[in-house]
């Protein structure tokens, strides 16, 4: 019984630390920049910055304030050349992957767009994998917890 509660406490502590940590996303705004992206801790200011960049090429970028953020990885090509790339923290409400391009940029080929939640999950192209590993880990820990407490 005693051992069980210790195991449960440790598990709960681990999960809380995981969730209390603020989200970190890879950030860059040009193809060249994105070869060596920096890391940014998400905040409304950081997500506003991404919205600003999204607004250069897209129409209808919403003004938003968030308490939870996603990481974005976005890439456009033209004639097999990467001409626009943007990584960073986004307001989930902005829906960056469903935005339409301004007519002047309508010929851009959207070759990649993903949003994910999980630290540094927007590093190309492994982003989706690491995000789902987090989900699987969380489920496994959750199951263990339920079994331990039962
Ligand atoms: C981000 O943008 C929203 C909407 O324009 C604004 O209300 C908010 O003050 C901005 N936040 C920061 C930290 O700049
Ligand atoms: C967002 O805010 C700016 C000024 O802060 C304003 O000019 C713009 O119209 C707003 N956009 C939307 C979609 O509300
Ligand atoms: C855009 O992408 C499509 C499908 O991947 C490809 O067939 C097409 O050649 C691309 N166009 C340009 C201009 O790169």
How many helices does DSSP assign? Answer: 3
The helix content, as a percent range, equals 25-40%
Query: pLDDT average, as an integer?
Result: 83
Rg, alpha carbons: 19 Å
Decide which structural class fits the backbone: alpha+beta
Could you say which overall geometry the principal axes of the C-alpha atoms support? Answer: elongated
Q: How would you characterize the largest beta sheet?
A: 3 strands, antiparallel
Return the string of H and E elements.
HEEHEEEEEH
The span between the termini is 11 Å
Bound compounds, please? 2-acetamido-2-deoxy-beta-D-glucopyranose
Spans of at least 5 consecutive residues whose pLDDT stays below 50 are 125-131
Q: Kindly report the spatial arrangement of strands forming the biggest sheet.
A: 5-4-7
- How many beta-strand runs? 7
**What is the domain total for the residues?**
1
| Proportion in β-strands | 25-35%
Keywords: Signal
Signal peptide: 1-22
Protein name: Protein quiver
Task: Please give a structural write-up.
With 150 residues, the chain is α+β, with helices and mostly antiparallel strands. It has one domain. Helix content is 37%, strand content 26%. The chain has three helices and seven strands. The strands form three sheets. It has a three-stranded antiparallel beta sheet. It has a two-stranded antiparallel ribbon with strand order 1-2. A two-stranded antiparallel ribbon has the order 3-6. Helix 1 (2-20) runs antiparallel to helix 3. The longest helix has 23 residues, at 127-149. The relative contact order is 0.18. The structure holds 2-acetamido-2-deoxy-beta-D-glucopyranose (NAG) (3 copies). One 2-acetamido-2-deoxy-beta-D-glucopyranose is lined by residues 62-63.
């Amino acid at each position: 019984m005693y051992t069980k509660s210790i195991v449960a406490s440790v598990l709960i502590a681990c999960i809380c630390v995981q969730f209390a940590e603020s989200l970190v996303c890879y950030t860059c705004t040009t193809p060249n920049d994105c070869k060596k992206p920096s890391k940014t801790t998400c905040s409304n200011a950081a997500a506003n910055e991404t919205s600003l960049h999204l607004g250069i090429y897209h129409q209808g970028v919403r003004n938003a304030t968030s308490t939870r953020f996603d990481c974005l990885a976005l890439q456009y090509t033209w004639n097999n050349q990467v001409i626009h790339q943007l990584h960073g923290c986004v307001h989930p409400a902005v829906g960056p992957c469903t935005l339409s391009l301004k007519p002047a940029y309508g010929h851009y080929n959207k070759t990649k767009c993903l949003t994910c939640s999980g630290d540094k999950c927007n590093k190309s192209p492994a982003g989706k994998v690491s995000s789902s590993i987090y989900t699987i880990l969380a489920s496994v820990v959750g199951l263990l917890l339920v079994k331990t407490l039962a």
